[in-house]
Amino acid sequence: MNRLLPATLLFIIIGGWALFAAPPNEKPTMNPEMGGSASTEAKDPFGVKGLTKDRPKDAKTEITSKKQATFDNATSVAEFEGSVVVKDPQFTMFCDQLRVTLNKDRKGLQLVEAFGNVIIIQDNTDDSGKKVKATGRGGKAVYEPVSGDVTLTVWPSVQHDINMQVATEQGTIMILNRGGKMTTKGGSRTVIVDNSQE
């Protein structure tokens, strides 16, 4: 039975949902077939390494929606519609509709799906102390907690500071993993600006 909930709902999320997060000891790479290298570590154009964050203990995620929020007790699925905003200690997300499926024991997430005008933003500080922002966009985003994958589809793009990767086809898929890998399937354009001082 569906039950209408207040427009603001707090979820205690066990585990992490970090769009660009990587474990501190991993060396990220743009090529999912290769391991990290010293040159990859020195140049991190999409902020995978720089946006590593530990999830705070007892972290809470606040989800607000303007049209409605429902929870189906039988399926453990919460749905939010209308200018949805997700505020989490590790990111902020905006979308038209959000579906959150909890584990059967309701002690964590099984699947998170965001639809329509999806924007996911992480603000952080790089190794030099400079404030940096990473933004993922698409018509749809799916987060799978078990794998740590965030899959962006429907004209996806990822931007970190001044570097970006943009889909050149509607069917392009961008997969970001908390292990530090980014995989793009389909046409895309990548712009990496070398602003190193030599």
> Helix count, per DSSP?
1
Mean pLDDT over the residues: 74
* Percent strand: over 45%
- Main sheet: strands, sense, barrel: 14 strands, antiparallel
Number of β-strand runs: 14
Instruction: Report low-confidence residues grouped into runs of 5 or more.
Output: 1-43, 47-53
- State the name of the first-level CATH class: Mainly Beta
Indicate the overall shape: globular
CATH topology: lipopolysaccharide transport protein A fold
Reported CATH architecture:
Sandwich
* Range of helix content: under 10%
- Distance between the amino and carboxyl termini: 63 Å
Question: For this structure, what is the CATH homologous superfamily?
Answer: Lipopolysaccharide (LPS) transport protein A like domain
Structural class given helices, strands, pairing?
mainly beta
Task: Please tell me the total number of domains.
Answer: 1
Order of helices and strands: EEHEEEEEEEEEEEE
Q: What gyration radius follows from the Cα positions, in whole Å?
A: 17 Å
Task: Describe it.
- By secondary structure, the chain is an all-beta fold.
- It has 1 helix and 14 strands, in the order ββαββββββββββββ.
- It has one helix spanning 38-42; strands at residues 2-5, 8-12, 60-64, 68-72, 77-88, 91-102, 109-125, 131-144, 149-153, 157-160, 163-167, 173-177, 182-185, 188-191.
- Strands 1, 2, 3, 4, 5, 6, 7, 8, 9, 10, 11, 12, 13 and 14 form a 14-stranded antiparallel β-sheet that branches.
- A hairpin with a 2-residue loop joins strand 5 and strand 6 (91-102).
- The termini are far apart.
